[in-house]
Design a protein that fits this description.
- By secondary structure, the protein is of the alpha/beta class.
- The chain has two domains: about 120 residues, Aspartate Aminotransferase, domain 1; about 240 residues, 3-Layer(aba) Sandwich (Aspartate Aminotransferase, domain 2), CATH 3.40.640.10.
- Helices cover about 40% and strands about 15% of the residues.
């Protein structure tokens, strides 16, 4: 008689024990389950430019469906260089300073992995997009937080100087800022440069909403020559062309930083969908000024939503960029923001995002939620009507 050997499962120690399903997935799932209007997750509910879809269709049917070069199609990198030159007056080297990635998320992960070693410190500005800290943790780094204060959510540079140390390796900035909709001013970039120029550190600038700025002056690391020479700038075609599902982003960095980032990129995705790169390259070359109209397009949607909520019991915080609007609900409920967002879905039929989840330590008694206005006008009006009934 033989006996079956018994086995015990190995102990699985999570590298991200505090990380669960993202708040975006959670709120979108609840919205789908309850049939609520989804103003939580940041994706458009309207179609992109049909000419771009036609170019993608043609590229799929008649173009190259095999691997692109690891760094991105040359034609697309050339188009990106032209885009940067037009918007920012910066000349970048096509071969050595531009890398196409499978979305901005991959670009941020690659950059952090390439630069951060165990024990290195990374400065984040809270509230911070929820991708940043897990990537730093996986690389063995330690996050140091500087809190942005409502309603402007601009940096406190005295507080920033206090967290800098000999261990600081990277400062991660995000403007226009998700989740607050705030934008840095040119003086903020100069303050950052004055603070870091004598430190052995780099800057990772998440600029995925770069073309959705409503102030008169457009601010970007691309426009600060000294800072640009030690920065990795991340951009997103998904945000710029209403194509979040395509997951095509790109990175601009000096050659030495680009070389290190590419070492990681080649083993994460190697390359991005070739036909989509082809379509975007052709679109940029055919319509070079299209991105210049993005701010006006979203300003109209912002104003539509703000005007529709003007007589509600919500307090509307400033929105200078992105497609996100913050609402203070202190006059409506004492619930914490997570519970309030769940209540909104159940009782009002509108899905939003709580802001507290983007902080390491949320401010006491802050009751603020985020709405996405990258939606069709009738969707925004229906949501505003429901919210105004509170």
């Amino acid at each position: 008689m033989t006996t079956t050997p018994s086995f015990t499962s190995p102990i699985l120690l999570s590298k991200l024990p505090a990380t669960g399903v993202t708040i975006f997935s959670r709120m979108s799932a609840l919205a789908n389950e309850k049939g609520a209007i989804n103003l939580s997750q940041g994706f458009p509910d309207f179609p992109p430019d049909p000419r771009l879809l036609e170019r993608a269709s043609q590229a799929l049917l008649t173009g190259n469906n095999q691997y692109s070069p690891m760094t991105g199609l040359p034609l697309l990198r050339e188009a990106i260089a032209g885009l940067i030159a037009r918007h920012y007056g910066r000349s970048v080297h096509v071969a050595d300073e531009i890398t196409v990635t499978s979305g901005a998320s991959e670009a941020i992960f690659d950059a952090i992995t390439a630069l951060i070693k165990p024990g290195d410190e990374v400065v984040l500005f809270d509230p911070a997009y929820d991708l940043y800290e897990p990537a730093v943790t996986l690389a063995g780094g330690v996050c140091k937080r500087v809190t942005l204060t409502a309603p402007s959510f601009r940096p406190d540079w005295y507080a920033f100087l206090e967290v800098l140390s000999d261990k600081t390796r990277l400062v991660l900035i995000n403007t226009p800022h998700n989740p607050t909709g705030s934008c840095w001013l040119a003086e903020d970039l100069e303050q950052l440069w004055q603070a870091v120029q004598h430190h052995d550190l780099y800057v990772l600038s998440d600029e995925v909403y770069e073309f959705i700025q409503f102030n008169d002056e457009v601010v970007s690391v691309h426009k600060h020559p000294e800072l640009a020479q030690r920065s990795i700038v991340v951009s997103s075609f998904g945000k710029s062309f209403h194509l979040t599902g395509w997951k095509v982003g790109y990175v601009v960095a000096p050659a030495n930083l680009t070389a290190e980032l590419r070492k990681v990129h080649q083993y994460v995705t190697f390359c991005t969908a070739t036909p989509l790169q082809q379509a975007l390259a052709e679109h940029l070359l055919a319509l070079p000024e299209e991105s210049a109209g993005l701010a006006g397009f979203y300003r109209q949607k912002r104003d539509l939503l703000r005007n529709a909520l003007a007589n509600s019991r919500f307090h509307l915080l400033p929105c200078d960029g992105t497609y996100f609007q913050l609402l203070d609900y202190s006059d409506i409920s004492d619930l914490d923001d997570v519970a309030f967002c769940e209540w909104l879905i159940d009782e009002i039929g509108v899905a939003a995002i709580p802001i507290s989840v983007f902080y390491q330590t949320p401010p006491d008694n802050q009751r603020v939620i985020r709405l996405c206005f990258a939606k069709a006008d009738d969707t925004l009006m229906e949501a505003a009507q429901r919210l105004s009934a509170l």
